[in-house]
Amino acid sequence: MTIQGTKIRRVGILTGGGDCSGLNAVIRAVTRAAIIQQGIEVIGIEGGFDGLISNQTGKLTIKSTKDILTLGGTILGTTNKGNPFEYRTRDGNGDIQVKDCSQKVVDTFKLLKLDCLFVVGGEGTLEIGYKFYKKGIPVIGIPKTIDNDLEKTDYTFGFQTAVQVACDAMDRLHTTGKSHHRVMILEVMGRNAGWIALEAGIAGGAHIILIPEIEYNLGNVVKKIRLRANGGSPFSIIMIAEGAKESGGQTVKAQGAKERLQGVEKLGGVGFYLAKQIEKQIDLEVRTTVLGHIQRGGSPNSFDRVLGTRLGSFAVDAAVKGKFGTMVALKTPDVVLVDLKTLAGKVRCVSKSSQLIQCAESIGINMGRKAM
Ligand code: F6P
Questions:
Q1: Domain residue spans in the chain?
Q2: Domain 10-157+300-332, CATH 1.10.357.20 — does that match?
Q3: Of 19, 50, 115, 147, which one is the catalytic site residue?
Q4: Global model pTM greater than 0.90
Q5: Fold designation for 163-295+351-362
Q6: Active-site residue 147, yes or no?
Q7: pLDDT digit string (tens) for 26-83?
Q8: Which phi and psi (to 5°) does residue 170 adopt?
């Protein structure tokens, strides 16, 4: 939707879903570009869409967004429980109640006299943003997630920082694994996409990389460890994505995780599961490290700072041009606009026949699908 001739005076910005490094770079860029280029007022909405349900907002200024470029997390706060169309709360008995609070969001948007809403989020948050666009809110999406699983953009910000963190962890596991002659397993996030595991695994010199897109065969994994040991390297480094599963098996759900209000199951623990399987077959010690939220926290790397800044600045430009119902996206070397509609409900996974996987296998990395 292009609204010609509508003067943008005041915009809102919210961050939704799991946090990642680079969110504050976007908030800063939106605020600065809006104020410096266009004299537009910027309202920060707290806690994702929840802030529009409860009207918890505050003005963002050049001063209030100073020094946040390098800061991890989001100064606005976020939640991955807040879908206003299916808002979940617990009643007095502890039972989950679901109700539609979307009209409250629309009402607050109007009350605040906003002309545009910047929705910074991953696939779930952007889908909600699209629903609000269909309800009449002029929305522009900005893609984030460490998982890098969004269609139509080369990268989401947050991903490269997470890859670097995972790569650094691999380097550390390498030295201790080699010293002790152990099999070291590193479990990383990514939900049902293997991007973090694949890129950080290649960067960190993993011998075996297991991702959700390729069900692994235990025999192939064990064979690789044996081959290495017989060849004079009695240690192996395995990178495994939390969503990886054994051929014919199930994904491993986090043990003891509290029932989540939003109804999304939490993954976690496949690294320990794999360790038990390997230990039964091989006379080497196996150790598992679960990297967890360390991948999401902390300062963004330079790539994510630049990407976040570019996306934020471009989003303001799109708002001024009335290009609503869109998402800003990286199509190297440019930032472009894509239709939010084409993204709804879609997740981008690693293609089994991708060059990246071919590259990994060509240099002898075992992806769990071949005996090599
Ligand atoms: O989507 C980002 C992500 O970090 C996934 O990689 C992971 O599965 C999930 O969020 C963890 O969610 P939570 O922060 O709720 O534990």
A1: 10-157+300-332, 163-295+351-362
A2: no
A3: 147
A4: yes
A5: Rossmann fold (3.40.50)
A6: yes
A7: 999 999 999 999 999 999 999 999 999 999 999 999 999 999 999 999 999 999 878 9
A8: -55, -45
